[in-house]
Amino acid sequence: MTRLLSSVLALIVLAASHATVTHAQVVAEPQSNARPFGLPIHGPVFKLKSDQRSTSFYNNEMRVFQEIVEDKLAESARFSGREGFKLDPARLYLRTVADESIRVYFLAEGAGYHNSLGFSWIPAGSDASIAGVPKVLIFPDASARSGSTRTSSEPLKAGDFIDLGFGDNGIQLDFFLISNGANGGQQWLWNDYRRNPDGLQHMVAFMIPDSRFILLGFEDIIGGGDLDYNDSLFVVDIGEENAENLLEIQSSLPH
Questions:
Q1: pLDDT digits 0-9 by tens, 36-52
Q2: The pTM is what?
Q3: What count of Cα atoms within 13 Å lies in the side-chain half-sphere of residue 220?
Q4: What residue ranges do the domains of the chain occupy?
Q5: Contact at 8 Å (CB) between 201 and 141?
Q6: What DSSP element (H or E) covers 206?
Q7: Across residues 239-249, what is the average pLDDT?
Q8: CB contact at 8 A, 123 and 7
Q9: Of 212, 132, 213, 222, whose CA–CA distance to 177 is shortest?
Q10: Which of 10, 16, 50, 222 has the fewest Cβ atoms within 10 Å of its own Cβ atom?
Q11: For residue 166, what are the CA distances in angstroms to 47, 56, 101, 179?
């Protein structure tokens, strides 16, 4: 187990070293100061369209995912098909080092809460709750306001992003949401429903065929709330080779 955790810690250090700022990337200002449970941030959030890759996502793929949200995850509309969209944790198993840094884009939020989004790297097939697996914040306050202005309590715009690093063969991405974490919330919600305090599904997932992107949406209310799964919406770019591999792994995630 010590060797297992050492491998994960080494991966995080490696990811941080790879997730360096390129010349074109611009840090979004202001950044959130929220640090629920004293968790560290993986790094600063970068501004939409501030490098070539994020500009391509903004101009091409982002609208496709926004249409999925409008069609499937409308505000306060119960998503009745959620059972068919359970995320199998094995779906985020990385068979190879990504061809580009794994990137998370903020898409939207329909929450009254100020939720905190984070992740862990875990060895494939291991218990994600084992002690010592580092948990890191991606968006400490995953909140946005309409218009062009940003504040430290509503710091995000659609298309803002953060790079997680290149991953590694045999590693899984494990996402979590701390419900109202930026305002002191204490409840953790996971992509694996069996770990949620209410035993309910709190995440849905969509994958576009022949795409390197996965759309993930969280429901942030313990007990299910309105079950619209649009309280925190983000898109994960896992790279072309990992995306191709995912299609070979049996899962309930639609193709």
A1: 999 999 999 999 999 99
A2: 0.84
A3: 24
A4: 2-246
A5: no
A6: strand 203-207
A7: 76
A8: yes
A9: 222
A10: 10
A11: 20, 20, 5, 28
